[in-house]
Amino acid sequence: MSDRWMVEPIAYIRTDFSDKFGIPRQSGRAPSLMGRIVFEPKFRTPDAIRGIEGFSHLWLIFDFSKAHREGFSPVVRPPRLGGNRRVGVFASRSPFRPNPIGLTCVKLERVEFDENEGHVLIVSGVDLLNMTPIIDIKPYIPFADSHPDAVGSYADEESGHKLHVVFPDALLSIIPENKRAALIECLSDDPRPSYQHDPNRKYSMRYSSFDVHFHINGSTLEVVGVDEL
Amino acid sequence: MSDRWMVEPIAYIRTDFSDKFGIPRQSGRAPSLMGRIVFEPKFRTPDAIRGIEGFSHLWLIFDFSKAHREGFSPVVRPPRLGGNRRVGVFASRSPFRPNPIGLTCVKLERVEFDENEGHVLIVSGVDLLNMTPIIDIKPYIPFADSHPDAVGSYADEESGHKLHVVFPDALLSIIPENKRAALIECLSDDPRPSYQHDPNRKYSMRYSSFDVHFHINGSTLEVVGVDEL
Predict the structure, then answer these.
(1) S-S: B14 plus which of A155, A174, A219, B36, CB 3.0-4.6 Å?
(2) Could you tell me the pLDDT band of residue B158, with boundaries at 50, 70 and 90?
(3) Chain-chain contact of B148 with A148 (C-beta, under 8 angstroms)
(4) Partner-chain residue, chosen from A43, A74, A139, that has the shortest CB–CB distance to B47
């Protein structure tokens, strides 16, 4: 039986993260973080999204395009487990999977029309790299998709843990106003790998057209510099 | 940019539906309906599912293998809308999509070991055809995936509608005991296309190794025959 076939992107998402470091670890962790879904010319017709505004949330099925690997590794080491406990790839949301397909739920903010890009979807709560290929978009159906009582094993741990972010006004003012809330949400979500706890270490996170530099000491993150690229 | 690549099945699911008619329209509609996920030899190692039992629910990303089509149809006609209202394919869960990928949430009942099939996953609440190719399995993460307040447009309508099923004992006893509850759940979920309401029409649904014949009159479904195949 030959059940192999070719996937092709239907769209690409534009986000403020061109580097992996600092991207929220799951959707919704940074509710203000926006994405702009631009359809490929072949799929760029308002018909294909007719009625989509009736749904508050969407599933994006995407290509972990930076995680394509030859061969099959049955176990992965999720960063949330300190990077040294191994779990099965099918018990994780790791990007390194036999078929490198990701799944993420975003909020649909609105549909916009752009002269060059056609109808684009503006979504929030994203956790995707800029220019991630989207291979499908599906409406979120609460009665089938929402299971608030589900048990999430190790993914339940720490989900509420937030850092206190100190962002001096002089530095914050460098960031455009409409990008500040999302940046603070991403910082407060603790971008470090969970095995790093050196208070003297300076971290740099690429966000939009900025490099944001910070230290973390205990549960406080302090921004110490912002460079425009 | 070439972002086309080949998907390959990691597993196949065994279910009691070898025909489309009667399959629950979303996962969880027939909570007792079981599936048995058998990994392909290449991916058949207990390592790949290590830790999976810590999760109560799983996402199955699957191939709508009976819905592969050439060309792109931007609109579909969901059966729940009477089959004549068109919505955009990305505002629907229709199988007829540019990349024919499906998404469904199931409950993980247990992991079983079989001498020939290795470690298999027993799941419930399925809505898949027998032998559907599974291309990924991911744990359900409640804090990211569960949105009980999401708005589901037309998919919110009718979600609680159930038929009263009259299943005479003499007929029910033909069905193995452990397959009865799921069958009744599927029948009560009203297998008809929503535009058919002819009380004289006799329907036949293939279930496991049986053909189940019934009429529907108003909100009552009466089973009138069961044939073993």
Answers:
(1) B36
(2) low
(3) yes
(4) A74
